[in-house]
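Model it.
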Amino acid sequence: MGKMTKRRKANSELLGDKKGYSLEEAINQVENFAKTKFDETVELHMKLNIDPKSSDQMVRGKAVLPHGTGKKIKIAVFCKGENLQKAQALGADYVGAEDLIEKVSKGLMDFDSVIATPDMMRDLSKLGKVLGPRGLMPSPKTGTVTQDVEKVINEVRAGRVEFKSDKQGGIHVGFGKRSFGKEKLMENAKYIMDAINHAKPSTIKGDFFKSLSISTTMGPGLKISL
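Modeled.
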């Protein structure tokens, strides 16, 4: 417990009583946070000016980050025929059709990204209760329902992230590792922000972002002045 308190104390002394930062200032501060034993993920947290209960105000999309996420992504691909061979040749972690659906329904969940071909979606709907709550259900909106499994596997490996607004109208997304340094983190953050802005529903009038903050896995949240 002592270490945790020490780190918290160091971080709160560093931040003082400043209430809001620019995006750049916040990313600069991340470098100065008390060190941890592992390479923390840097996360963006935002609250959007949407009605989460309204299905036409759901915000969902993807961004391929210029510097990747720093995380090894495990990929599950649901497909048949020649796509099966393509996905296997590219070394996707789990590849299959009904057999893979069966395994997942029995508890296999060791993957971070799911891709499916359109002909698998009817069968895959059986896994809605398993994949849905984890934000893993493939969708044409994020490009994860596709005939071009090759392209999407390569994108995921290159550092593609998906985002989706939650029941509170928030989006929480990791955009790199602390070791990336401020320039790479700044570029990645801008890509994500642009992609989210691009996914703004046409029914929304006025400001899209209600609040915005940056944090690391173990560090405090820094509020961004909008």
